[in-house]
Amino acid sequence: MTRPLLTADDVARILGVPNSFVYALARRGELPTVRIGERYVRFRLDAIETWIAEHETLERRGTQ
Question: I need a surface site. Which of 16, 21, 51, 59 has the fewest CB within 10 A?
Answer without folding.
Answer: 16
